[in-house]
Write a sequence for this structure.
């Protein structure tokens, strides 16, 4: 009985697999599946579960720190609602100025004010978003950052 030597590893593995009985192949495939599941559990599931637990503890600590800062009076809003309203009104005025500049720069004739309206709307929305984005709470306040330099 003559056997040929496989030319590469893949052929050698295919030949080795073909020499196994059906029950051996089933057993090997089941073992490989169990090993794959174990590796997936170790590499994927365990780190996710650990990170979830760690982040849950971190959120609890952050909430306690924020509650403590509020209790001590260290937590304050960056801008009061009055300042935000004033910034929004200023954004409308600045948007009108940008739109007027666009109107003059484009030399709009025949009463076509669509470019004026588009420039005003766009600049007002952008400037209003910039002015309104600072409503977040500053837990330690700017004074604390200035003292610590961070």
């Amino acid at each position: 009985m003559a056997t040929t030597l496989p030319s590469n590893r893949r052929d050698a593995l295919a030949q080795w697999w073909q020499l196994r009985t059906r029950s051996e192949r089933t057993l090997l495939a089941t073992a490989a599946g169990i090993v794959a599941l174990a590796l997936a559990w170790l590499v994927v599931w365990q780190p996710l579960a650990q990170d979830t637990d760690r982040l849950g503890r971190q959120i609890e600590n952050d909430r306690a720190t924020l509650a403590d800062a509020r209790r001590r009076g260290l937590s304050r809003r960056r801008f009061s609602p009055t300042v935000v309203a004033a910034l929004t009104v200023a954004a409308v005025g600045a948007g009108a100025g940008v739109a007027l500049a666009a109107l003059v720069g484009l030399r709009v004739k025949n009463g076509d004010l669509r470019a004026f309206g588009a420039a005003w709307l766009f600049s007002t929305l952008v400037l209003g978003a910039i002015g309104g984005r600072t409503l977040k709470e500053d837990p330690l306040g700017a004074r604390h950052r200035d003292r610590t330099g961070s």
In short: Confidence is low (pLDDT under 50) at residues 142-146. The chain has two domains: 8-74, 79-134. The longest helix spans residues 22-72. Residues 140 and 146 are 11 Å apart (CA to CA).
